[in-house]
Design goal:
The protein is an alpha/beta fold and 393 residues long. It contains eleven helices and 16 strands. It is elongated.
């Protein structure tokens, strides 16, 4: 039975997978700079006799053919980049690249996909179709490595009928998974604003255009976008996260810079909101006698999990792990460039439980103390292999 064979193969390679994760965690690389990571992945694929090609500089696409390979193609995706964070974990496999850390679990994602690759390759006479393995760079930084892989043809020759991706979930205990159909994660746009005016002596504000006051008014005014111009039932976040201007107590600066993020789950509203944000900047400039320049760096779209695909995946997951270990993923206003795939083909992005409260493994992603219960790795590998081999769409 294929399910039991997948579990058996996962158990056989569990120690090897943990060693792979340790290597990746020790040698993290930032977005679009994953050269050694890419070489390591290629080395493993070559060692296991799995054919592959490269694209988007550090991206890799591997192909495994089962019986009747033209009958269907399923894509499995992992991201490979790390974050600009200095690791504070006291572990033997701590990052050796100061200021760079796999704090979002991409080392785990990559290891799980490599594990699935080895399992599927070993069992290729037991399942039908073709599996396309996508090792993708640059998830953490615009424009998103997914968009570059799509540009370079990752969804062609052969074209997958569905794609799966997993993500670590430190808030979910190890041994568990979660799925969600429909809208699952938000779009993410970066906001950069410059407030310019005539600076001068703080004791003579009437002779200046007070950029600090204008910036303060702008921060407040922008909150109307969510609180008064958006449907309350439509998830949206606008956060100004940085205000920089001036460096002493008695000078009104000639420029104040602001940064922030805009998140939404509706593409029409998203771009309407961009125009509202720019209009508020223009109007605030008019009443404060300043010049306000607003630049919005458009990022990833919202992530849409295909309903029929996710429900089939949930059923498959229950068959593999048992109903008590399969849960509902909560909606998140975080973003993921897997979303690009989800707007082109049926997609299912699910969560892998990696937390363990008893062991004190509870730190969230994007923190200096993030880590996982490593027994999750073999489970993630078998789930990816099982979905790749068993989905019928």
């Amino acid at each position: 039975m294929l399910k039991e064979e997948i579990k058996k193969q996962a158990a056989l390679i569990e120690n090897e997978l943990v060693a792979i994760r340790h290597h990746l965690h020790t040698h993290p690389e930032l977005s679009y700079e994953e050269f050694e990571t890419s070489r390591f992945i290629q080395q493993k694929l070559k060692e296991w006799g799995i054919s592959y090609s490269t694209m988007a500089t550090t991206g890799i696409v591997a192909i495994i053919k089962g019986k009747n390979p033209s009958s269907r193609t399923i894509a499995l995706r992992a991201d490979i980049d790390a974050l600009p964070i200095t690791e504070e974990n006291d572990v033997a496999y701590c990052s050796q690249n100061i200021g760079v850390m796999h704090a979002c679990g991409h080392d785990v994602h990559t290891t799980c996909l490599l594990g699935a690759a080895k399992i599927l390759s070993e069992l290729k006479d037991e399942w039908e179709g073709t599996i396309k393995l996508i090792f993708q760079p640059g998830e953490e930084k615009n424009p998103g490595g997914a968009s570059l892989m799509i540009r370079d043809g990752v969804l062609k020759d052969p074209s997958p009928s569905a794609i799966f991706g997993l993500h670590v979930h430190p808030g979910l205990e190890v041994g568990n998974f979660s799925f969600r159909s429909g809208k699952a994660m938000a779009s993410a746009d970066e906001i950069y604003i410059s407030v310019k005016g005539k600076g001068g002596h703080a004791a003579a504000p009437h002779l200046t255009s007070d950029t600090v006051l204008a910036a303060a008014q702008l921060v407040v005014n922008l909150q109307q976008v969510v609180s008064r111009m958006n449907d309350p039932l439509n998830p949206t976040v606008l956060s100004i996260t940085s205000v920089n201007g001036g460096n002493t107590t008695n000078v009104i600066p000639s420029e104040v810079k602001l940064m922030g993020t805009f998140r939404a789950m509706d593409e029409t509203w998203r771009y309407k909101a961009h125009e509202i944000i720019k209009s508020i900047c223009t109007n605030t400039a008019g009443i404060t006698n300043t010049e306000i320049i607003c630049d919005i760096d458009v990022g990833y779209p919202f992530l849409l999990n295909d309903g029929p695909l996710c429900e089939q995946a949930r059923s498959q997951a229950i068959a593999l792990m048992g109903a008590d270990r399969i849960h509902e993923t909560e909606i998140r206003m975080g973003a993921e460039d897997f979303a690009y795939y989800s707007h082109l083909i049926p997609a299912c992005f699910f969560r892998l439980g990696t937390g363990n409260k008893e062991k004190g493994i509870t730190s969230g992603v994007h923190t200096a103390h993030f880590n996982i219960d490593e027994s999750a790795i073999a489970l993630g590998a078998q789930m990816m292999a099982w979905l790749g081999a068993g989905i019928t769409v």
